[in-house]
Amino acid sequence: MDNATGERAGYRRSAGSPRGEARRRELLAKITEDVAENGLVDFSLRRAARAAGTTHKVLLYHFESAEDLLRQVVFALRERRIGNALAAIAATPATLTDRVRAAWESLRDEETRLRRVLDQAMGLAMYDPGRYAALGRGASGQYLPTLLEFCPPDWPERRKFEVASMILATLRGFLVDLLTSPDGDGAAAGFEALLRAVEREEAAP
Domain span at residue 113? Predict the structure, then answer.
């Protein structure tokens, strides 16, 4: 991937300008679709510029670096995943168990390419944390608020956090299993055990 550190000197950012912000969002949307389609392998400012129909210098006007652009792309794709899950639970009963089941069905059935891109992002964070740690740190920060909202409102905040963290870590493991196993039987079996654990939590005083 390009390292833009040496290239961005002399370029100013468009933050604060409504017109500049609109252009930044337009560019980000085009690049996000390219990443969703083609993954993160060989991602660079020049590849992103081709996808957006512009130049890498223009991208450096709107984004701090290649890493900053990639972080925003991954954020947008995670927001897409969360939006899909929330749409899936909209008509479900308001129990934590039912919401977790509906969210998992959305995750399980989502486009393979979206799942692969988001897993690639986590792989980059583990492989080169010096450059891409933000890709990993940002994941829990995006997902946890939604899972906390799934929990019963009368639960103490600490209990909500503990249960939501358990659900998040477990579902992320199941998603990896779906990508690496031929049939997904392990994820399916494990998910039923997770649901039983969630049901016990809901039944507890």
Answer: 67-203
Show the low-confidence residues of the chain (pLDDT under 50): 1-12
Total domains in the fold of the chain:
1
Contact call for residues 59 and 47 (beta carbons, < 8 A): no
Question: Is the pTM higher than 0.70?
Answer: yes
Is 10 exposed, middle or buried (CB count within 10 Å of its CB: 0-12, 13-18, 19+)? exposed
Alpha-carbon span 10 to 15, nearest angstrom? 15
Distance CA 120, CA 172 (A): 13
What is the tally of helices (H) and strands (E) in the chain? 9, 0
d(Cα 158, Cα 190) in Å, to the nearest integer? 25
Whether the CB-CB separation of 77 and 117 falls below 8 Å is answered with yes
**pLDDT for res 15:** 60
**Does residue 188 lie within any of the structural domains?**
yes
Angle at CA 139, nearest 5°, toward 122 and 178? 55
Asked whether residue 2 is domain-assigned, the answer is no
